[in-house]
Write a structure and sequence with these properties.
The complex is a heterodimer of chains A (177) and B (137). Chain A has 177 residues and is α/β, with parallel strands linked by helices. In chain A, strands 4-3-2-5-6 form a five-stranded mixed beta sheet, covered by helices on one side. Helix content of chain A is 35%, strand content 15%. The N and C termini of chain A lie far apart (109 Å). Chain A has helices at 17-31, 86-95, 118-144, 153-162; strands spanning 38-43, 63-68, 74-76, 79-81, 107-112, 167-169. Chain A has a domain at 58-169: Nucleotidyltransferase, domain 5 (2-Layer Sandwich), CATH 3.30.420. Chain B has a domain at 49-135: 2-Layer Sandwich (Nucleotidyltransferase, domain 5). Helix content of chain B is 31%, strand content 21%. In chain B, strand 3 and strand 4 (73-75) form a beta hairpin. With 137 residues, chain B is of the alpha/beta class. In chain B, helix 2 (82-95) crosses helix 3. Chain B has a five-stranded mixed beta sheet with strand order 5-4-3-6-7, covered by helices on one side. In chain B, strands 1-8 form a two-stranded parallel sheet. The chains are: A alpha/beta (177), B alpha/beta (137). At the A-B interface, helix 1, strand 1 and helix 3 of A face helix 1, strand 2, strand 6, helix 3 and strand 7 of B. Strand 1 of chain A pairs antiparallel with strand 7 (128-132) of chain B.
């Protein structure tokens, strides 16, 4: 009598698959860094060699010259102010130029000494940016009734045109050795 | 009085058949979002703090330059001299025209060095920069 052989079921055990997947998942969870890079953005002007540089006269009314010396003292148009007062100082001047055409908006010129500490420079730049941002928010609030980031792109463009951020980094002086 | 336990007649089991699928889906998400390319930072630095902070929207456009508190400059994985900044960054801006250079500078660094690097970046046509800073609370 021939006995029929029982065929073993050919299957891969999948019970541990979930465990393996969990292990992999854990590895990626741990190794992932979801930190967003934050910082103060700025666009540098294109480099022009000194002999080709042109001096453009700018109406002194348009300019706000911010000077920082090596001790961290700040001068705005010859007037001594503290670093955290820069914002209050600039805001009315930016606001007063909202209705003027593009070529008469306020230019903030930032100049530092070579020995100025970086931290003071960033604080000053932060203050200047904040001044622009707050004026933008106030303008968009009065015009569209909402904050700048909540506007639709077309409205944002309008606000950007009304309050452009013009920060000019002064051309460094040639160091005499 | 006799107490009787109330029991539902149905099976009390959570179906686990689809668990591997769910886990795999999560796994896939993390695999896609992970950027494993981490650079060893060789310089010591402490970022300044600021309020008017913007997020950099596209991480793939960023190149980093570190400046430590000992005035050493690091690009990629190596310490470089100031004169080497321009050729390196020029090749980068050629490969990726709208590159954003993130300057991770120690808060006690001199502006002189930062200005020098900015001048080199201007010559290398890397015009979009970002001063890396932490959010002031």
């Amino acid at each position: 009598m021939i006995k029929k052989k029982k065929i073993a079921e050919a299957s891969i055990p999948t019970a541990s698959m979930a465990d393996i997947a969990f292990l992999l998942l854990l590895f990626f969870l741990v190794s992932t860094v979801i930190d967003v890079d934050t910082g103060i953005g700025l666009t540098l002007p294109e480099y022009v060699p000194p002999e080709e540089q042109e001096q453009v006269k700018v109406d002194p009314d348009r300019m706000a010259a911010v000077l920082i010396n090596e001790n961290g003292d700040v001068l705005i148009d010859g007037q001594f102010v503290a670093v955290h007062q820069i914002k209050q100082n600039l805001k009315p001047r930016i606001t007063s130029k909202i209705d003027l055409p593009m070529n008469r908006k306020l230019i903030v010129s930032l100049k530092t000494d070579r020995k100025t500490v970086y931290n003071v420079y960033i604080n000053a730049l932060d203050q200047i940016k904040l001044a622009f941002f707050e004026v933008r928010d106030e303008y968009s609030n009065s015009r569209f009734g909402d904050k700048y980031d909540k506007l639709i792109p077309e409205q944002q463009k309008e606000v950007r045109d009304a309050v452009p951020i013009i920060i000019s980094l002064a051309e460094p002086e040639v160091v005499k050795s | 009085m006799k107490f009787e336990k109330k029991r539902a007649g149905t099976k009390q089991e959570i179906p686990t058949a689809s668990m591997p699928d769910i886990v795999f889906m999560l796994l896939l998400f993390f695999m896609v979002t992970t950027t494993l390319r981490e650079v060893d930072v060789l310089v010591d630095f402490k970022l300044p703090e600021a309020e008017a902070i913007e997020k950099i929207e596209n991480k793939r456009l960023i190149h980093y330059i570190w400046i430590g508190n000992d005035k050493r400059i690091q690009i990629n994985d190596s310490i470089v001299r100031l004169e080497e900044v321009r050729p390196i960054m020029y090749s980068k801006s050629q490969a990726l025209p709208n590159v954003i250079v993130s300057l991770r500078v120690d808060q006690n660094a001199d502006m002189g060095l930062v200005t020098d690097i900015q001048q080199e970046l201007r010559k290398a046509y890397c015009l979009r920069i970002n001063y890396s800073a932490n959010i002031k609370i």
